[in-house]
Amino acid sequence: MKQTFGKTDLETTKIVYGCMGGAGAFGAQEEQDSIDALRGAYDVGINFFDTAEAYGNGYSEQLLNRALGDKRDEIVISSKVGAQNLAPDDIMAACDRSLKNLGTDRIDLYMLHWPNRNVALEDSIGALKTLKEQGKIRWYGVSNFGSDDLDDAMALGDIAVDQLPYHLFFRAIEFEVQPKCAAAGVPIMCYSSLMQGLLAGKYRSLQDFPVDRARTRMFDHRKWADVVHKEEGAEEAGQELLDALWQMTDQTGLSMEELAVGWLKSRDAVGGVIVGTRNGEQSRGLKKMLDIDLSHDILASLDQASDRLKWELGADIDMWGKGRTR
Ligand SMILES: NC(=O)c1ccc[n+]([C@@H]2O[C@H](COP(=O)([O-])OP(=O)(O)OC[C@H]3O[C@@H](n4cnc5c(N)ncnc54)[C@H](OP(=O)(O)O)[C@@H]3O)[C@@H](O)[C@H]2O)c1
Fold first, then answer.
1. Which of 37, 63, 118, 201 is the most exposed place for a label (fewest CB within 10 A)?
2. 284-300 pLDDT, tens per residue?
3. What CATH topology corresponds to 2-200+256-292?
4. What is the pLDDT of residue 182?
């Protein structure tokens, strides 16, 4: 089933396929698996594909073209310009590169991937407006913009989306930016919906999570080599949530992915729930994500189970470290 995406004329599925893992973000990846994953997502009915120039330095966009170039008119493509390229000339050049990588003449939704404090936002949004007038992009928006940044962006242009980290292990957007998006009619695309696999029902303990993925603020920097933040994390509350989720899978007969994605689908202002997979088999599992619709009681239990962690991690919307967003 498709929906109209916010104020745009894009007709999209609420489940969005995330192309980052296909470019090797989660370790060695066979190209054929990435192609099968993309085709598998299309085959189960997903029509919305999210990529970025940053994913494999354009390789993810090229893969999307290789896998689904022949379906271009049937799919909606979102891509992002990297924070280092937000000066107007750089945005124009980045967009041309992305169009070439994607083998298309337009990007449906084009986002500023992260804020860049060294470039005037007015100039970046001005470039996005020019790209829209030229027909190279159809709509534009932002990603990783907190409440104040989003205010600034909305004052400058017609922002069609804010792509943000949002899942049961990270509810920081609920404090400020999500209510703002709801009031302004700006849809949220949630990323890391499965917390990079922690919500895919594979791990009983946080300690089993791969060290290169245990990088969010939930993890204690003293224990994990790959974290960049300097916080003590909230692992006790995180483990409590993981235990509660396992218990709920037993009680409801639903998989952890269904609980995680079903919960996101029900949240205010959520216009897209991005999920990434590594191969065709995982993508076929996305069929049930399109269909899942959780009961009020299950949703309430999920709210309650994740509430302690939400408060311990607080309102900074940056999942990886504090102070970069506002
Ligand atoms: N705007 C931004 O700054 C930003 C940042 C991050 C991500 N994103 C977007 O969000 C997308 C997804 O987020 P994410 O990459 O963080 O990952 P995610 O969707 O939270 O998790 C992906 C992982 O979940 C596991 N998985 C998925 N389906 C599964 C299944 N059926 N069975 C078992 N395991 C399954 C796989 O783990 P294994 O690898 O262990 O198999 C996969 O790599 C990205 O591709 C990108 O489009 C945006």
1. 118
2. 999 999 999 999 999 99
3. TIM Barrel (3.20.20)
4. 98
